[in-house]
Amino acid sequence: MYHHSIKHLLDETVTEVVTNKGYSEDVRMSNLIVYTKEKNAFLFTYPHVGSAYTSTGLMVSSKLPRFSDMYTLTIASADPKSISAKPTVEFTKSVTKWFTKDGVLVEGLFWKDVEGLINDYANAKENKKSKFTKDGVLVEGLFWKDVEGLINDYANAKENKKSK
After folding, report:
1. Where in the cell is it found (predicted)?
2. Backbone phi, then psi, for 75, in 5-degree steps?
3. Residues 12 and 73 both lie in one domain
4. Same domain, 77 and 147
5. 94 plus 82 within the same structural domain
6. Which of 15, 34, 51, 152 could covalently link to 55 via disulfide, CB atoms 3.0 to 4.6 Å apart?
7. Within 13 Å of residue 3, how many CA atoms lie on the same side as its CB?
């Protein structure tokens, strides 16, 4: 099989697993990403069914470098600046784990690995403590919330000192 054929087959299977787990595809975003090739993303979803207010959708991306058998699958928040965004999860594994010697995908093995990664993402704690994105960009809303807390603490301490 050709390199691009392997990656395409794996990516299509990932899409099937993700949608089967209750995430519906945001076709508009996915089409835009296919057009722009943003961060190797091939799938954007809406939030998981029943959790629209407590989670974001997913951005799913993958890499299979040329002349390599190592496939990296990454699941991240579709809205990384959201307070509901969870930490990014990923795995890197050899594609030889999922294909027979004849080049046939053993879907059950691959599905198990993808479902495990989806579960890791779903069970990850929200990334509330980090004031920075993974790219080192300050998330201003979280920063200002802490600044307001410090100002309030200072004002309360000052008020308590006056009342003594």
Report:
1. Endoplasmic reticulum membrane
2. -120, 125
3. yes
4. no
5. yes
6. 51
7. 9
What's the domain count of the chain?
Answer: 2
Half-sphere exposure of 13 (CA within 13 A, CB side): 19
Distance of alpha carbon 64 from alpha carbon 72, whole angstroms:
7
Q: Are residues 49 and 95 in the same domain?
A: yes
| Cα gap 151→137, rounded to integer Å | 23
- Distance, in Å, from the CA atom of 32 to the CA atom of 110, rounded to the nearest integer, reads 27
Q: Transcribe 51-66 into DSSP letters.
A: -TTT---EEEEEE--T
CB 13 within 8 A of CB 114: yes
The answer to whether the CB of 42 falls within 8 A of the CB of 11 is yes
The greatest distance separating any two alpha carbons of the chain, rounded to the nearest whole angstrom, comes to: 82
Query: Which residue carries 């000192």 as its tokens?
Result: 161
Residue 79 and residue 58 in contact, taking contact as beta carbons nearer than 8 Å:
no
Q: What is the residue-level pLDDT of the chain in tens, covering all 164 positions?
A: 587 899 999 999 999 999 999 899 988 776 666 555 566 888 989 888 776 566 789 999 999 998 999 999 999 998 888 888 889 999 999 999 999 999 899 999 999 999 999 999 988 875 444 555 555 555 555 556 666 666 777 777 777 777 76
